[in-house]
Amino acid sequence: MLTVPVIRDVLLFLSFVFLFYLALKKDQNSRINWAMFFSSLWIASTLPLFNIISVDYGLWSFAEHENTVIQMPWDLYFVWIVLWGVMPVYFLRGNYMHIVSGVLFWIDFVLMPMLQSEGLLTLHEYWWLGDLLLIILVFLPGYLWARIFIYRKLVWLRALMQMFVMGIFLFLTIPFCINIYFPFQPDYFHSDSLTTQLSFMISLPSLIAVLDLVQKGKGTPFPYDQTNNLVRNGVYAYIKNPIQWSFTFIFIPISIYYDNYWILIGTLISIFYVIGVSNHQEHEDMFVRFGKEWDDYNNSVPSWIFLWKPEHYPVGKIYFQKGCNPCEGVHSWFKEKETVNLEVDYEDNYHKKIAQVTYVDYLGNEYRSVDAIAHAFEHINLAWASLGWFMRLPVIHELLQVIVDGVGFNEAPCEIENGVRKQKT
Asked: Which spans are transmembrane here (predicted)?
């Protein structure tokens, strides 16, 4: 009779064999390969986190002698990633999501009591609920990520999942790995509000960069899920690598929070990676995709230092509605400012009727009301652009729009009668 250790060794061996087969087989499908990578990345990032939470809440626990930093055996963790992140995507291409989820839940429901009987695992009363949540929060999102990547759907969701995984990597995985070699206890003497503010300031350029890559570039930050358009406005008019800049310097507030300055090694590694690997690959790929447009942009915008004035900002146009006192005031304000390549005009010279204000960028994207003003701020300087980036953030944008609408700048056109602004009906 096969024992659990033998079964684990066999599963580990078969997992490696399957991965070697995928790596060496002919007729590689790059889209499927990257779909398997994305699915595995999600599972590899979220499985340890969910398992630690499950152990802490008493849903299950692995044998004491198997304890690791992720509180589960490393070989089981690796096999789990292959079984959930690689095989279903390779064989089913992201299809039959409900059936696959049900089958995996049934397998776990049968297998986990067997592992308990062999002394590897201890299950508690509501372990089945934890396993159900494991399917919903770990497997399903990873499988969904693979599916929407294969079929090129929901670009905003693909970008959101990338950000979530990178957040786990930066704020949890790296500190945990450093703690293995340089043990530390978090010191909460430092002000949480200060660390939060510093983290937000460093993260803001990358958050807006991701938003622009999705909305304007029609792609994501990952080079293997690339954009269709070269984004040259927004934060990209001030610095060439805003995401890499944020990624590099975010280790400063993280090290302050954990009170461990070994974490700053991440900043050095990031700089060396960008200079030695990323820049070479990115520049070559961007030139192939965008040619002279990329060459001109690359030569006009720095990689690591923010410009104060965006001298090469692509032409943008902002149109205001006539006969609306608040609109006239904002129109005059922009006219008086020293903007870069911002054309300020009235709706008469636009091809359709507008409400209050509309901004049109060089790619033909339209933005209205709060979004329009925020984009126009980017034509002034870094200080005003930073305010515009804050205004464009999800939730912040919606709240500002509610306030603007609440004081009379709603979407209905307005007119002046005897010096009083009235809404047209």
From this structure: 6-24, 36-54, 74-92, 99-115, 127-151, 163-182, 194-214, 235-255, 261-279
3-class DSSP assignment, residue 181: helix
Six token digits for residue 225: 């899920």
Closest listed residue to residue 268, CA positions, set 241, 246, 242, 249: 249
pLDDT digits (tens, 9 = 90+) for 17-36: 999 999 999 989 999 999 99
Taking the alpha carbons of 328, 329, 330, 335 in that order, is the dihedral positive or negative?
positive
Dist. CA 188–CA 202, nearest whole Å: 21
CA–CA distance from 195 to each of 59, 189, 204, 342 (Å)? Answer: 33, 11, 14, 36
Residues in a beta bridge with 414: 423
- Residue 13 token pair: 């061996």
Handedness of CA 101, 107, 113, 119 (dihedral sign): negative
- The two three-digit tokens of residue 217, written as one number: 């570039």
pTM of the predicted model, to two decimals? 0.88
Please report the pLDDT score of residue 323 as a whole number: 75
Cβ within 8 Å of residue 223, ≥6 positions away: 281, 282, 285
What is the rounded distance in angstroms from the CA atom of residue 149 to the CA atom of residue 356?
Answer: 38
Distance between CA 397 and CA 403 in Å, rounded?
10
Could you give the domains of the chain?
1-153 (no CATH), 165-307 (1.20.120.1630), 316-423 (no CATH)
Cα–Cα distance, 235 to 300 (Å, whole number): 14
Rg of the chain on CA atoms, in Å: 26
CB-count burial class (<10 Å; 0-12, 13-18, 19+) for 34:
middle
- Show the tokens assigned to 106: 């049934």
